[in-house]
User: What shape does this take?
Amino acid sequence: MALKDIKLKIVSTKKTSTVTRAMEAVSAVKMRKAQERALGGRAYAAAALSIMERLSGSKEIETHPLFKTRRVLHSDVGLTKSHMKTAIVIMTSDKGLAGALNSNVIRATEEEIRSRELSKDDVIMLAIGRRGGDYFLNRGYVVREKHENVSDDISEEDMHMITDRLLEMHEKGEIGSALLMYMNFLSTFEQKPVVRQLIPITPETIKEMVAGIVPAKGKYTGIGQGEMRPNAYTIEPDAEAVVKVLVPRLLNIAVYHGLLEGKASEHSARMVAMKSATDKAKEMTKALTRKFNKIRQASITREVSEITSGIEAMK
Assistant: This one.
């Protein structure tokens, strides 16, 4: 490799390092804000889900459509199997450069589909983030909704765009179950893809959600823990009216919490990826500089040797 080519590669690597360092700094700021929102929202989400768990033994809750498991039906003609579909809400990022974040969520989604023995026709996708939506759309899945460029400052009310669609499809009998796929934030350097069952709602799925919310350490450790026994409540003005409003709201909180966890995971993964890229660019710059100096020194030595040999030959 010529000295000019090495020098151009050094300049190019330094420019790349500048870009990745800037992206690392931006991701670090976004990461801190997203982590604070996700961690701060855990107590609220755990408390909201614990309310649902406490009410899960009441008569009004047990008769609610979202708590009922819809059985697989068979038609009378030829016993052809026909069952309602499964809605999957998948949360990924719009952009790449976040390590294996998106691929891990997508892989977990595919594994869940295989474990449930679902075909492409059995699944309706609702994608938050371009990466997941494009992936499954290109592979023949029905992507009913795809929301891109979702802001970090999105509120719980904004998540009704997903929850309302799930409730609408469930009420029409189009789906019998709904799953939520997202990356759960554990730490800056560790995120884990998780699957949460949204519909039908059961005490077991609620306990699983609460257990996933509680961090291993920190000031939020232990929130929502303890045995939740069904209690008898006097509900005013009317039990049916209260449950009708409460259950969709609590379902929306679960979806919103998944988004907060996903955002914190995204910015953390991108910051770590950009830091690794910056460190790698620095190492490459050093290696190329050493190679440049070695070749240049060899060239200088060769020229000095030729001059010396010429002088000796003239004597």
In short: The longest strand covers residues 175-187. Residues 239-314 form the longest helix (76 residues). The mean pLDDT is 78.
